[in-house]
Amino acid sequence: MVELVETPTPVSASSTNEGARPTKGLIMRYCFQLQVRPDRIEDYRARHAAVWPEMLDALAETGWRNYSLFLRDDGLLIGYVETDSLADAVAGMARTEVNARWQAEMGEFFEELDGVPPDQGFLLLEEVFHLEDQLARHPAPTPDGPRRHHPRSDVR
């Protein structure tokens, strides 16, 4: 089981509304990695093309936002999610019956989990660059002089 150490990257105020803080607290960005077994890649794609509606609802209700999965042809899986707390979001899902069923079925798709459910066995990755955060610190130049607010920093 991977310990969820809260070392995420905050979603900056500039990536929501200029100067505004998110209303439910600071939203954090998380990225994680898993390895799909080569012989199960096509099945994995098919399963995620039609995720159970009750699973989608449970994810949304437990705070998973802007959640995406990216799969390379060799099975490298990268996930991205924004949430107030990944530990709380994972714990919230662990309390749902639909997640227990989903994780039991998904476990066979992954390498190197040693019986740990996929939603607890992933490797968290460190964010080392975020364009909007850097643009917010170094606003775009204007014709009149110094750099000012970048026109894209308020777009999410």
Architecture overview:
By secondary structure, the chain is α+β, with helices and mostly antiparallel strands. Helix content is 28%, strand content 22%. It has five helices and seven strands; from the N terminus they run E-E-H-H-E-E-H-H-E-H-E-E. It has helices spanning 41-49, 53-61, 86-94, 97-106, 131-137, and strands at residues 9-10, 28-35, 65-71, 76-83, 123-125, 140-142, 145-148. Strands 1, 2, 3, 4 and 5 form a five-stranded antiparallel beta sheet that branches. Strands 6-7 form a two-stranded antiparallel ribbon. Strand 6 (140-142) and strand 7 (145-148) form a beta hairpin. The longest helix has 10 residues, at 97-106. The radius of gyration is 18 Å and the shape is globular.
- Indicate the radius of gyration in whole angstroms: 18 Å
Largest sheet: 5 strands, antiparallel
Give start-end ranges of low-pLDDT stretches: 1-8, 11-23
SSE topology string: EEHHEEHHEHEE
Helical content stands at 25-40%
What distance lies between the first and last C-alpha atoms, to the nearest angstrom? 33 Å
User: What's the count of strands?
Assistant: 7
| Average pLDDT rating | 82
Our estimate of the beta-strand percent is: 15-25%
Q: Name the structural class.
A: alpha+beta
Number of helices: 5
Shape: globular
